[in-house]
Structures are given as C-alpha cells and as structure tokens.
Amino acid sequence: MNGAGCGSCHSAPGVWPEGEVGPSLDSFAQQTLIAGRLPNRADILADYVRNAPKYVPQSGMPAMPLTEEEARDVAAYLYTLGRR
Amino acid sequence: MWPLISTRSAVGDALGGWPPPVLDPAGPYANPLATLSWVLFGGAGLVFLVVLAALWIALFGTAARKEKLGGTRAIWIGGVAFPVVVLSVLLVWGLSMTGSLTAPIRGDEMRVKVTGEMWWWRIAYLGADGGAVLHDANELHIPVGRPVVLELESADVIHNFWVPRLSGKLDMIPGRTNIMRIQADAPGVFGGQCAEYCGGPHALMGFVVVAHHSEDFARLMTARRANIRPPAPAHPDLARGAQLFGSAGCAACHRVAGTGANGAAGPDLSYVGSRQTLGAGILPNNRGTLMGWIGNSQAIKPGNRMPPYSMLSSDDLRALAVYLEAQR
Ligand SMILES: [Cu+2]
Which residue intervals define the domain Cytochrome oxidase subunit II copper A binding in the entry (chain B) (predicted)? Predict the structure, then answer.
C-alpha cells in the first residue's frame, strides 16, 4: 500500500502518509459493506482496490496501480484491521 | 518520525532506504568522499585496537611492560609524534583527494539553477548566457558522464542540497549562490533530500535526480524547449481538467508551459505527469496520489503551502488528475 500511495487518501496502521480524502481503514475488517455498497468479500475487495470505478463509477477512489497478486495481499492485510 | 525510515516512499526507494547510501558513490564527485570515509573508518579501527592493547598491558601486563608504557618515551611517541604525523598525512592526503571537488569551473559545463523553497525545489536549466531556458521542479535531469554545475540558491531560509550517491552536502543560503558539481557515471535515479532543518515539513523535502544517456537527454531537452509534448491519450475528463485548473485557482500558483497558467508560488507543473514522485519526492506519482494530494495535501505534508481542496468533488479531482497526468 505504501508502494502504490494509498496513504495519500486513507489512514491505516503501518501505512504512510495518513491521508484524509477517503475513509480511514483502521477497522475495515468489521465492515459488512465495501464503500457502503458491495458485499465485503475477499474476491470483490481485491478487485475493488485495483479498480474501484468499475463498481462505483463516480467514486473518489480511482483505479490503482496494483497487480492482481498485490491486490490480494492488500485485501488480506485489510482483513486484519480491527478484527474482534 | 522520519517517514523515509519506515516506509517505501518513492524517494526512499531511490535513496536506497535508511541510512542514506553515502558509501555507495555513483560519480566522481562522490567517490573521494566514500574513499576518505573508508580510510578514516579503517584508521580509527586500528587506533582503537592499539588503545585496547595498551589498556590490556596496563591491566594485565608484566611490571616491565607497564613501566615502559608509562615512560616518557612512550608518551612522546604515542602522545605527540604519532598523532602529529598521522593527522598531517591525513590532512594533506584528504585535501588532495577532495581537491577535484573545488577545482575551478571550466565554463562549458551544463548549468542548472536549483532554488530551495519551503518545502520543494525550483529548477531552471540555464543557457550559455546564464538565462533560464527551461523551468521544472522537484526532479533534475542530467546527462551521464558529464559534470553538471549547480547554482544553489534559496528563496527563504537555509536549505541544503544533498544527493548522497552523487555529491556531498552544500548549503543553499538566501542572497548567495553556492556552486556545486555533480556527475553520474551511469543512467539511473538518485534520491536527494534537504539536509538542513528548514521548518515544519523539512523531512518531507526530497527530490530525485534522473541521469540519462546523452542522446536521450538531448532529445528530452530539445522536445521540452520547443514545447513538443507526447500526445495526450484522449480522455473525456481532459478538457474539464484544463478548465478547472484555471477556475479552481491552481493557475495562480502553478505554471504549465504553453498555457495561460503562469503562477510562480508553487512548483512548475509543465511535466508533472512524467515525474517519478509527487509532493517533493515523497509519494509515488499516479492518479490516486495526484487526487489525494490535490484533495488534501495538508493531511499528507502538514504545513506545506498549498491549500486543501475539500470543496472539489471526486469528479473534479479526477478531471484535474487526468489533466496533470497529460503534462509530460
Ligand atoms: Cu529545506
């Protein structure tokens, strides 16, 4: 996430900087929906973080330069955030 | 603390992580510094061993040895003669070694003026008559194998220009022009960093030097001087982005060559789409980081002199990013 610069819009543990354009991802694993719309499933999340406009065309979250594998790793990391 | 330590920022990658690669020189103006450092480390190591040996004798040696160690002769040799000889030799050798760093400018070198600003770098490529022929920011392009003379200035407070793999450090002082040379032996990207505390986001004041093969460099400069741009990929947001750049006030602080945008308070954005980094060497450059920077650069680089744009919609941010990506 540091390599792609997600931190320019989000805060998340271990990610720099702590941008404020998008929501904080600090407890993302507790959410039922991604971006208030999509079921929070690993395959959808991995696709969403690479290409959000495909799901939410007007999204403030642009397509990001991640490979499929990197996106799966990012999704796995996001599911560790705020686990109860 | 210093984000370059803990994260993979673009400039962090170029710097090669932490600590900065000061002992990995990539050009003739950095080589002598690395050699000198190694000799000093080695010499210091040797002296340390000698001191340990003396300590060992003082603690556990025979009475005769202790006697000798405490004698006047030992003090004259170890305490006076040895340091005088070693330090003199080091001084002469060190000066001859680094002499090339202060050799006079020949006058036919390529010249670039780099001005430290709070907290970014203004760059002007100079023509033969000393006038600026091309403006840019936060990224310095040089040809390999040729010395490049840098005229270092400051617009506000004292900054310090430092590219660990290409040179030592040199202060940028308001009202003065300090001259420094750099040269890269092979193509590559070399991270740089402000090395003199200059207020709030000082640690986030980085840049990169990109060294090109001579022909590539000549091509780049010729195209930019003639304002010949690679064709921008058609995108429905492009025109809107260009229009917003004026109506949202960006043009008051930023210049884009060949357009009406001529602001000088912020970095020149004529080639921002081809930059390796954003925010003065701190972020990778892609649509997301562009949108994030424009939307709220204050959360990214607190205290920097660009206002946050929380009144822009996601469509506006995207259009601006698309427009800036096309400025190459
Ligand atoms: Cu500075």
Answer: 107-223
